Amino acid sequence: MKTITCLMLLCVGIVSAQQTLSLPEGETSPKANLDQVAWIEGHWKGEAFGGIAEEIWSPPLGNSMMFVFRLVNDGKVSFYESGHIQQVDETIILQLKHFDGNMRGWEEKNQTIDFKLVKIEPNKVYFDGLTMEKINENQINVWVLIESEGSTEEVLFLYKRV
User: Which Pfam families match (predicted)?
Assistant: First the structure.
């Protein structure tokens, strides 16, 4: 899965997708701040990859919004993610790390998966290969561009507030 995630990030620019965008080579992220994405805060649950996906997001504090994610299939954790949206200078970035069901990391110790900001709207934020949209107070949609076995697809996570 680590290889899939890394390949996903390398191929984002070549693949045309409906809901995700790519930051063109050499361009910098637009100005943004955490208050513009504070609507992500909350406990969210939905179905994905044949199981139950769950994310818990904190409110902005200390120049970040932290989160944890888990995917449960057949009553067992398939994998976890831990990460944040961090304020960096005049923009924001989403960074995460993956862990298997026994908390063994996928990425190297000092490595993160980084999603640079591409575009921000009042209820929608586009990171490079990952888009989050507030549908209403109790629903958000998250699209992630994933490559597996040579093909790329956008995976939709339909989350409801818990």
Answer: DUF6265 (PF19780)
List, in sequence order, every residue forming a beta bridge with 128; answer none if it has no partner: 21
CATH of domain 2-161: 2.40.128
Taking the C-alpha atoms of residue 33 and residue 38, their distance in angstroms, rounded to an integer, is 9
Are the C-beta atoms of residues 52 and 74 closer than 8 Å to each other?
A: no
pTM given for the model: 0.86
127: nearest Cα among 41, 7, 47, 8: 8
Q: What is the spatial distance between Cα 147 and Cα 11, in angstroms, rounded to a whole number?
A: 8
Dihedral sign of CA atoms 115, 155, 108, 11 in order: negative
Give residue-wise pLDDT tens across range 144-157: 999 888 888 999 99
